[in-house]
Hints:
Protein name: Cytochrome B5
Domain Cytochrome b5 heme-binding: 5-76
InterPro entries: Cyt_B5-like_heme/steroid-bd (IPR001199), Cyt_B5-like_heme/steroid_sf (IPR036400)
Largest sheet: 4 strands, mixed
Shape: globular
Number of helices: 1
Pfam families: Cyt-b5 (PF00173)
Amino acid sequence: MEKTFSKEELAQYDGKIKSQKYVAIDGVVYDLTNIKAWSGENHHGHVAGNDYSQEILNAPHKKTVLEKLPVVGKLAD
Length: 77
């Protein structure tokens, strides 16, 4: 069963409050916990636990990296 995260719940998955690092893109929540680029406190100034649906459009990789990431749920509207 897919978990639905509120924005408040997602914010807990920042690698500090909870050890996992999750982000949302277009309503889908991805697990970045084991992604080397996200191993520090932030990734190019972006902190886990947030919705980066708009920001990813400006990233050099765009959405091409998403297919490699584990999906852990969806973000509530």
